[in-house]
Design a protein that fits this description.
mainly alpha, two-stranded antiparallel ribbon, globular
């Protein structure tokens, strides 16, 4: 349903209602609350380990309950990153950071039940991440042999591939994984600060520990020959570990207000590349998110030494504004942010999150962004984000939602083992590694709709074929959904959002 109204754009509570004028805007009427609920439910379908009685994705069962036993440690729990059965801790930690950041910025806008569900999703991850740093001198970075796993089409409940455990140490550093883990735990400590002080304190202590490891033993985990074959090409550190050091320090500063981390950001920004202007934000490249996060303290706290971070954040924002003279990010003919390489919706959701978050910071501090020939304010950034999320939910040339279970038309054949194979409750007999191939090649819809899963999305031509084998387009990931939770929380609470 489409409608044209003259009404106030969504608000950041009372401030935005005061700041935004009444703008005419034609849009589809989406049920953002429904999309928010489903985007959080998705994480229950990605759980590893023993499932609780409250499990709502009822087609899933217990899996990988002995993870870590090979190395004599407990690594049960956490999330599978996508449609396979490997636990990659680098993207899992980023997923956690983004889920937590969404609650920190927009949690007060969430309905009570969904805020509770979102916090449960964060805690499922943080309980696990605390295990990964529990052993002195080690940080565990992955569980599962990805080559063997990817050679099978097998339910997680039936897994019989090697659950190899990988770690980094003083002589085999992994600053990017440890730094992102520090960011995740620090951000999450803010989520639980008011409701569980003891747990919040454990998280911030874990964040400090992870950051100390990352900073003391500097290096990229994918540079180690013993790890490279396991983490590459899946989650190689293509961008370097330096941004994760700054990112981890920035979150520790935000969560603890410890001046030690402020000094780290001030003193190491240049040498660690904080001024690199990259119009990307994701599990590997933190620069844009770092600059947005740190610019808050400059704009609201007037710490002049951090002004360069706002300058870099402004430069990033200008690449997203079609009217600016900056070199622009690419858009599809239908208006979707597009970056080559597959799993494109990860860029859509992370950038949309940064647009809304930066709009919030700009509004509160009465700042704008100067993009050469055009001055950009919060209202413009909110509209940009809304166009992206509305495309994802169905306002696109394919006239389909890219979230499973939302709307009347959505992907039916997603690249996801557990979703495509029959549930262990419907088919309790063991399905071996290669015996699941018939479900992979089938043209039938997935046996278990993975409600809330957002797929990689269409190509640069706005076309989506709904092909299970085309994992670049049809595979969901936790780091697509994580930033989307905050985005949907904002729009679900806003005037005219339904």
């Amino acid at each position: 349903m489409r409608a044209c109204y003259s009404l106030p754009l969504p608000s950041f509570h009372i401030l935005l209602l005061l700041a935004l004028s009444f703008l005419p805007y034609c849009f589809s009427i989406h049920d953002y609350h429904d999309a928010l609920s489903k985007s959080i439910l998705f994480f229950e379908g990605q759980r590893s380990g023993r499932l609780p009685a409250s499990q709502r994705a009822a087609w899933r069962g217990d899996s990988a309950v002995s993870d870590g036993s090979q190395a004599g440690v407990d690594l049960e729990g956490g999330y599978y990153d996508a449609g396979d059965n490997v636990k990659f801790h680098f993207p899992m930690a980023f997923t956690t950071t983004m889920l937590a950041w969404g609650i920190v910025e927009f949690g007060q806008s969430m309905p009570h039940e969904e805020r509770r569900n979102a916090k449960v999703a964060v805690r499922w991850a943080t309980d696990y991440l605390l295990k990964t740093i529990a052993h002195p001198g080690l940080v565990f970075v992955q569980v599962g042999d990805p080559i063997n796993d990817h050679n099978c089409w097998e339910r997680p409940e039936d897994m019989d591939t090697a659950r190899t455990v990988y770690n980094v140490s003083a002589d085999r550093p992994g600053s990017e994984v440890a730094g992102e883990t520090a960011a995740a735990l620090a951000a999450a400590s803010m989520v639980f600060r008011q409701t569980d002080t003891e747990y919040s304190n454990r998280l911030i202590a874990g964040a400090r520990k992870a950051f100390e490891f990352a900073n003391t033993y500097r290096g990229a985990y994918s540079d180690d020959p013993g790890l490279k074959g396991a983490v590459c090409p899946y989650y190689c550190d293509y961008n370097g570990y330096q941004d994760e050091l700054l990112w981890g320090a920035a979150w520790l500063r935000r969560a603890s207000q410890d001046d030690t981390f402020l000094e780290f950001i001030q003193n190491n920004g240049k040498t660690l590349g904080a001024d690199e202007n990259v119009n990307e934000f994701g599990w590997d490249n933190k620069h844009a998110g770092l600059n947005v996060l740190v610019s808050k303290e400059f704009m609201e706290g007037k710490i002049l030494a951090l002004e360069s971070y706002k300058g870099s954040a402004d430069s990033f924002i200008c690449t997203l504004i079609p009217e600016s003279t900056s070199s622009h990010i690419e858009y599809t003919p239908g208006g979707l942010i597009y970056k080559p390489g597959g799993s494109n919706m990860q860029h859509v959701t992370t950038i949309s999150f940064l647009l809304l978050t930066y709009a919030k910071y700009l509004l509160k501090s009465s700042h704008t962004v100067n993009c050469g020939n055009v001055s950009v304010g919060p209202a413009s950034l909110i509209l940009q984000a809304k166009k992206q999320v509305d495309y994802l939910l169905g306002d696109n040339p394919m006239k389909m939602s890219y979230m499973v279970g939302y709307g009347t038309r959505y992907p039916q054949r997603i690249h996801h083992r557990g979703s495509s194979l029959p549930s262990i409750y419907a088919h309790p007999q063991f399905i071996a590694c290669k015996n699941g191939s018939v479900y992979y090649t089938s043209q039938d819809p997935n046996s278990n709709p993975h409600i809330g899963a957002v797929v990689g999305g269409p190509g640069e031509d706005d076309v989506y074929e709904d092909d299970r084998a085309d994992f670049r387009k049809s595979e969901p990931t936790t780091y697509i959904n994580a930033p989307l939770v905050g985005v949907l929380a904002y729009f679900a609470s806003s005037p005219g959002s339904k």
